[in-house]
UniProtKB/TrEMBL annotation:
Protein name: MarR family transcriptional regulator
Keywords recorded for this protein, A-Z: DNA-binding, Transcription, Transcription regulation
Gene3D superfamilies per UniProt: Winged helix-like DNA-binding domain superfamily/Winged helix DNA-binding domain
Taxonomy, superkingdom: Bacteria
Pfam families per the UniProt record, alphabetical: MarR
Segments forming domain HTH marR-type: 10-140
Transcription regulation recorded as keyword: yes
Organism: Streptomyces halstedii
InterPro entries per the UniProt record, alphabetical: HTH_MarR-typ (IPR000835), MarR/SlyA-like (IPR039422), Tscrpt_reg_MarR-type_CS (IPR023187), WH-like_DNA-bd_sf (IPR036388), WH_DNA-bd_sf (IPR036390)
Amino acid sequence: MAPSRTDPLTLDVIELIGDVVARYHEEYDRAAAAHTLTGAQARVLALLSLEPMPMRKIARRLKCEPSNITGIVDRLELRGLVERRPDPADRRVKLAAATEEGVRTARQLRDALDFAREPLAELSEAERTHLRDLLRRMLGTD
């Protein structure tokens, strides 16, 4: 028999996941503020530090409206952290890309995030692998 969505264990797991997400966002927002960035700006910068991408792809990855991403990229561009460039595969498409300063700032932001890193470091590699696999399964991406 499948567990009820309201059984105590399920409710406890849901609450713990919510607590983890909330603490991660609080820490991310603090790290962003130390660089005078909003949490949303920091998340876009983190994505772009990995690879240039079109605004629509950024919006899909962050699950928000493309018009919001345009404004965020505009502000990051004014700060010299992001630049727009033509997509070499399709010159009609503009890519947003982190500048060298943007990549450096994104690295500093990642380095400042202790909450997510430190508790995970207390888990063995096998436990982290199992947790990753369970989360992927929950999200349907396994």
